[in-house]
């Protein structure tokens, strides 16, 4: 969303080169929308989406908790004002020495999805609380999370029993339905799996306390998406369906949904050309591409809204590409992007919905290009 504040910043500051501008007012509004939609769920912001200190400080002040994927992110959340009790080490793939460092910083909540990871936590963070991540199919997600994280529900039962045997607190179950999830009912099947794990653990005398319902909440790109309130109603309905009046403690981990629509990237057209005299389409090259922060255009998964000053002119589909000497640095080719025919070298474009997963995906000096600059206003 290109807000008046962002336009004023760009017009006043005229920053050189491609840059991201994030409007904190939008982040604040998004946090309030999540809190209203699921008032009984604790919000754990996924720091990996955008770890800008200004964003973390704002969210910490609003009462957010934080889902962290590394010790560095844990330290960022602590520096922003979060206490250790408001931080989860949510990565299921951790070095044992990093678990020990996190535990030394006061972190007591860790994600696991295997017996081997449980053993590391038991050695490095004795007595800690653990939750086991369960696999989901990710159907309906525009950025699926595949099979890298989680285990099947029956293994989750075994993992949590093993954690209990090793002196850890088997605290709950987690899942992630897939990033940019557009199906309101996606949480239903995952919550059914979570309930089955709860029941199996109860039969063995272990009472789980928490369901971490992950992220997946979308931001608006070219297509409309349901509101946070609509997701909240669907998720609460699924919780009631599967847990009845014994709804456990719940966590949500919005990342993209918290900051995606708060950011806009300003970029510039470097070249407009064709590959032959009778080529039916143009190639438009920008000064930013996959290696400059737009990695989520891989397989053309995320399709960003692009605005120009010439949008009232006639449009024509084109191939959109980045500036690096790498043939993979093409953003949209299979499904070409409509841009003004009059678009020319030196024109600025605004790429909306880029507040999440852009600065953190930006390469460090690939081809000598600087990492994506970012401004938080």
UniProtKB/TrEMBL annotation:
<keyword id="KW-0663">Pyridoxal phosphate</keyword>
<dbReference type="InterPro" id="IPR029066">
    <property type="entry name" value="PLP-binding_barrel"/>
</dbReference>
<comment type="pathway">
    <text>Amine and polyamine biosynthesis; putrescine biosynthesis via L-ornithine pathway; putrescine from L-ornithine: step 1/1.</text>
</comment>
<dbReference type="GO" id="GO:0004586">
    <property type="term" value="F:ornithine decarboxylase activity"/>
</dbReference>
<dbReference type="InterPro" id="IPR009006">
    <property type="entry name" value="Ala_racemase/Decarboxylase_C"/>
</dbReference>
<dbReference type="InterPro" id="IPR022653">
    <property type="entry name" value="De-COase2_pyr-phos_BS"/>
</dbReference>
<dbReference type="InterPro" id="IPR022657">
    <property type="entry name" value="De-COase2_CS"/>
</dbReference>
<dbReference type="Pfam" id="PF02784">
    <property type="entry name" value="Orn_Arg_deC_N"/>
</dbReference>
<comment type="similarity">
    <text>Belongs to the Orn/Lys/Arg decarboxylase class-II family.</text>
</comment>
<feature type="active site" description="Proton donor">
    <location>
        <position position="325"/>
    </location>
</feature>
<dbReference type="InterPro" id="IPR022644">
    <property type="entry name" value="De-COase2_N"/>
</dbReference>
<dbReference type="InterPro" id="IPR000183">
    <property type="entry name" value="Orn/DAP/Arg_de-COase"/>
</dbReference>
<feature type="modified residue" description="N6-(pyridoxal phosphate)lysine">
    <location>
        <position position="48"/>
    </location>
</feature>
<dbReference type="GO" id="GO:0005737">
    <property type="term" value="C:cytoplasm"/>
</dbReference>
<keyword id="KW-0456">Lyase</keyword>
<dbReference type="InterPro" id="IPR002433">
    <property type="entry name" value="Orn_de-COase"/>
</dbReference>
<dbReference type="GO" id="GO:0033387">
    <property type="term" value="P:putrescine biosynthetic process from arginine, via ornithine"/>
</dbReference>
<feature type="domain" description="Orn/DAP/Arg decarboxylase 2 N-terminal">
    <location>
        <begin position="27"/>
        <end position="259"/>
    </location>
</feature>
<protein>
    <recommendedName>
        <fullName>ornithine decarboxylase</fullName>
        <ecNumber>4.1.1.17</ecNumber>
    </recommendedName>
</protein>
């Amino acid at each position: 969303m290109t807000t008046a504040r962002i336009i004023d910043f760009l017009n006043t500051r005229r920053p050189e080169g491609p840059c991201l501008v994030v409007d904190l007012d939008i982040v604040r509004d998004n946090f309030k929308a999540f809190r209203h939609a699921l008032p009984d769920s604790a919000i754990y912001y996924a720091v990996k989406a955008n770890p800008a200190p200004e964003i973390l400080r704002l969210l910490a002040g609003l009462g957010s908790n934080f889902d962290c994927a590394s010790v560095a992110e844990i330290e960022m959340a602590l520096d922003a004002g979060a206490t250790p009790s408001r931080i989860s080490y949510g990565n299921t793939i951790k070095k044992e020495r990093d678990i020990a460092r996190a535990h030394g910083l006061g972190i007591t909540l860790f994600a696991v999805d295997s017996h081997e990871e449980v053993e590391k936590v038991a050695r490095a963070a004795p007595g800690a609380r653990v939750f086991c991540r369960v696999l989901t199919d990710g159907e309906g997600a525009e950025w699926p999370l595949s099979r890298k994280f989680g285990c099947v529900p029956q293994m989750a039962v075994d993992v949590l029993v093993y954690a209990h045997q090793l002196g850890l607190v088997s605290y709950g179950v987690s899942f992630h339905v897939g990033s940019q999830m557009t199906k309101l009912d996606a949480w239903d099947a995952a919550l059914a799996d979570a309930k089955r794990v709860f029941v199996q653990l109860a039969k063995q005398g272990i009472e789980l306390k928490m369901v971490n319902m992950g992220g997946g909440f979308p931001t608006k790109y070219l297509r409309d998406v349901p509101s946070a309130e609509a997701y909240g109603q669907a998720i609460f309905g699924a919780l009631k369906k599967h847990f009845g009046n014994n709804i456990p403690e719940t966590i949500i981990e919005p990342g993209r949904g918290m900051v995606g629509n708060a950011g806009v990237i300003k970029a510039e057209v470097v070249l407009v050309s064709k590959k032959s005299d009778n080529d039916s389409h143009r190639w438009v090259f920008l000064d930013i591409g996959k290696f400059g922060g737009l990695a989520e255009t891989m397989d053309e998964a995320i399709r960003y809204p692009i605005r120009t000053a010439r949008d009232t002119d006639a449009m024509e589909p084109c191939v959109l590409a980045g500036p690096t000497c790498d043939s993979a640095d093409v953003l949209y080719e299979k499904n070409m992007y409509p841009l003004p025919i009059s678009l020319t070298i030196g024109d600025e474009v605004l790429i909306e919905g880029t507040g999440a997963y852009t600065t953190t995906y930006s390469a460090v000096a690939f081809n000598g290009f600087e990492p994506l600059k970012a401004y938080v206003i």
